[in-house]
Amino acid sequence: MFRPVIVKVGGSLFDLSGQIINVLKNLERPVVIVPGGGIFADLVRKSGSHGTSGHWMAVCGMEQFGWYLSSFGILPRFDLEYNESRSVILPYGVLRKHDPFIHSWEITSDTIAAWVAMMMNGDLILLKSLDGITKDGQLVEVLLSPITCEEVDPCFLNFVFFNRVSTIIINGRYPERIFAAVMGKACIGTRICPTF
Fold it and tell me: Contact 143/133 with Cβ under 8 angstroms?
């Protein structure tokens, strides 16, 4: 039996939402989608909100994107209980219950997705509009320790290494890469390999 895979759909992929959901809902593996904040969280940033109010407003932005993703025929979910369905998590209620992070823009949907993967004992795939993490202009195919980078939020890499969350970052604009990553096959991206 497969472990669940947690797939974070970055907000920059909003225009491909239907295509991505069609790929994910037809795979033979339990998939839990974590929505990014996208255009909704961007509005919160532009408002100048920060701290606790900015945090929860941004989480509400994730929730809005989650409802949009569910409109393409995938079930919304409101908890972290394991099941074999393909669903999109609506994170506001879950995060209000657990409140695991400081309320800062240092924590975004990247790290929230890693937390969901940790809580559900699943593998994590981050779908973004880029091929992965780069260093000196080159794609890092395998990352064995945290580095400073701009492709993920400042807390993400320390979180996944400390909590040993197996992760791959790929470009969600290529459906064949999504399929390969979910099914555990080789594909272009950055594989993050914490020591187990």
Answer: yes
Domains (ranges, CATH) in the chain?
A: 5-192 (3.40.1160.10)
Q: Residue 190 contacts by C-beta under 8 Å, 6 or more apart in sequence?
A: 131, 132, 133, 139, 140, 141, 142, 143, 168, 169, 170
pTM for this entry = 0.94
The end-to-end CA distance of the chain, in Å, is 21
pLDDT digits (tens, 9 = 90+) for 10-48: 999 999 999 999 999 888 888 999 999 989 998 998 998
pLDDT score, position 2:
63
For residues 34 and 158, what is the distance between their CA atoms, to the nearest angstrom? Answer: 19
Q: Name the amino acid, one letter, at 18.
A: G
